[in-house]
Structure formats: structure tokens, C-alpha cells
Amino acid sequence: MKVTTVINLPYEQKRDFYLQLSDIKKAAHLLQTGGLVAFPTETVYGLGADAINEAAVRKIFQAKGRPSDNPLIVHLAKLEQIEQWVSEVPSVARQLMERFSPGPITYVMKHRGDFATSVTAGLTTVGIRIPDHPLALALLELADVPIAAPSANRSGRPSPTSASHVEEDLNGKIDLILDGGSTSVGVESTVIDVTGQTPVLLRPGGITLEDLQSVVGDVLVDTALQEQPRSPGMKYRHYAPKGEMWLVTGEDMVKKIQTISREKMKSGYRVGILTTSENEDKYTGAQIVVCGSRTSPESVAKGLYDVLRKFDLMDIDFILSETFPLSGLYLSVMNRLNKAAEGKTIS
Ligand code: TXA
Ligand code: MG
């Protein structure tokens, strides 16, 4: 199996892609015939397969090295298609869909039993989303089958926000990558369970908790999100760079990072620092990687996974990361940083 990058469509440019329609058709055909295609969404790149085809879906788990008890998100082209696959669209879901879909949000609802067992990991519910990306939507429409797609990374690695990230992780293991340039949101979709009376936030993502609350009022936050990850708990090993990573909090965050990085460099470590444009000049000696600007949570989210991958490319063995306030899009950023650092925090 050879990976061919057939399309180069920088998302920001919103360029017309009719010229490459044949490439999207090829990808759609691969999906219809049980193949694996990586494609861009507004959040991260997904690794897609026909959600009805058990053999095809199993290949996703194989390529990613993903544990089989972790269910996949099903992607559809249009909101109107959802009813066909779930037993009920609860009214709270309708409200959220009206406001946020297509977009970076996944609704967990009761399915009708049509999906491959591996998609739902045997659960009675399924996560469904309509991505907000022209290439993804064109592909979904042409394939005309529901597409199961987890993030297109090797399990445990940071999610891919560019075609080259996908290539780094899955080259030789999948049939095709559609290259749509860098993704715009940079963290995965918000996952919300809408099966109960009050919606439950299962994973913070591109749509913020505040956004959800503004539409439906009460939103419960899953208890697993409030726990500090146990270190070095296998269950939480996710997005983790190869180097040991620590999050640094508190008012004297910069000072602490300066002191600890100096000590670690003295002991012979190759130290990396995850910072933002405001603070980059405050550190010396270590490998400084700038992840957006503190005044723009969107910029930090967009750059996050690329930065985590950079530390590996730079062979960093000790990483100190700045931290962010636990609200808005930063709640999602901090959720991913916590997982990457396996909860290790200096406060
Ligand atoms: O932005 C995204 O959501 C990306 C793009 C490709 O769409 N996809 C993605 O998929 O992040 P994945 O597989 O990496 O994450 C799926 C998340 C997991 O946390 C999984 O446990 C949860 O959704 N999930 C899926 N189905 C579920 C269900 N029935 N009940 C509870 N959680 C579910
Ligand atoms: Mg993932």
C-alpha cells in the first residue's frame, strides 16, 4: 500500500477544488470498497473507513494500534442524514445542532444497530458529527456512506493537524491521504452525550463549554474530566512526546521555568520549553518552541499538536510547558496538555 498525497488545498485559502474532483472521487471510491483514507477536517485529520463495513473498520484499529474498546466517531455530510442512523434526535441535540453543526462537535446518541460493531465498541450509542471542512464534506457526499474516522495518528501520538503528520505516523499502512493543508481548529471536536435529561460533556474540544451553556443552559461535566490523570497511567498516555513533560502553573510560572530549565540543562538534559509569543524572549539556552499567542486561545489550539511533535523531532528529553486559564478554548488545550504530561504538574 502506497500513500499518495493527491491534493494540496490550504484550508485558509478556501480555494476552489473542482479541478481536483477526480482525486476526491478516487478517495470516495476507496472508501466504498473497504479502503482507508486520511482526510482533513476543521479539527484534525481523520482516518476514514465505511462505518458499515466491519472488515474496513477493523483496519483502522490495526493501522493506528488503537485499543478495540475505544469507539469511533461517525461522520456524515448533512444534518438531515442523522435521523436515518439514530433512534431519536433529542430536542437538546437539535438545539445544539442548529447552532454548532457543521462544526467541531460530536453528539453521542442511541444508534439503530446499523454500524459495524467495532465502530461503537458494542455500545448502544454512537458519536456522530458533521465536519465543517469543504474537502471532508465533498468526500462524505461522494462516498455516500457514513464514515467512521478517528484522528489519523498512531494511537498515543499527538493528533495530526497536517498531511505530513499523518504521513509520519501511518505511511505504508493506509491507502491514501487527501492533503488539505493545516487544519484550522487544531484540537478535536467537543464530545457531548445528549442521551440523558442534561447533556454531559465527555471531551472538551473546538466548541467551548461556555458556548454549549449559552444554548442549553445546564451542561454536566463528566467526572473523568475532573480527575487528575494518574501518572504514568497507561490509560491516560495520549498525545505524549518522547521526552518527560511537566506543566508549570502559578503566578511565577516563567521564573520557575527559567530556574528548572537551567538546573536540568546543567545536569545534561536537552530541555525544551513550550511557550507563547509573549514570553519567548524570557528563556535562554533551552529549545524554545512558540505555540501561538496567549491573547488568542485559537492560535494556541491550532499550533499545539505540531509543537508536541516538534519536541520529538528535536530529540528533547525534558519538556517544561507553560499553562493557561481553565476556561474557553483553553479548557481543551489544558485537557490535551495534561494528557501529554500524564498529569505531571509543578505548582
Ligand atoms: O475532531 C474529531 O472528533 C476527530 C475528527 C477526525 O473528526 N476525530 C476524533 O476521533 O477525535 P477519536 O477517535 O480520536 O476520538 C473519538 C472520541 C473518543 O474519546 C471516544 O471515546 C469518543 O469520541 N466516543 C466515540 N463514540 C462514543 C460513544 N458512543 N460514547 C462515548 N464516547 C464516544
Ligand atoms: Mg484521537
Question: Describe it for me?
Answer:
The protein is of the alpha/beta class and 347 residues long. The protein has 2 domains: 11-221, Alpha-Beta Complex (DHBP synthase); 244-346, Threonylcarbamoyl-AMP synthase, C-terminal domain (Rossmann fold), CATH 3.40.50. It has helices spanning 21-32, 54-64, 82-85, 91-100, 117-120, 134-143, 163-170, 209-216, 223-226, 253-266, 297-313, 329-340, and strands at residues 37-39, 46-50, 73-75, 105-110, 125-129, 147-148, 176-177, 190-193, 200-203, 220-221, 244-248, 271-275, 287-290, 318-321, 345-346. Strand 1 (37-39) and strand 2 form a beta hairpin. The structure holds threonylcarbamoyladenylate and magnesium ion. Residues 41, 43-44, 46, 70-73, 104, 106, 108, 120, 123, 125-127, 131, 149-151, 188-189, 191, 202-203 line the site of threonylcarbamoyladenylate (TXA).
Topology (SSEs and partners):
Blueprint: H1 21-32, E1 37-39, E2 46-50, H2 54-64, E3 73-75, H3 82-85, H4 91-100, E4 105-110, H5 117-120, E5 125-129, H6 134-143, E6 147-148, H7 163-170, E7 176-177, E8 190-193, E9 200-203, H8 209-216, E10 220-221, H9 223-226, E11 244-248, H10 253-266, E12 271-275, E13 287-290, H11 297-313, E14 318-321, H12 329-340, E15 345-346
Parallel strand pairs: 1-7, 3-5, 4-8, 9-10, 11-14, 11-15, 12-13, 12-14
Antiparallel strand pairs: 1-2, 2-6, 3-6, 4-5, 8-9
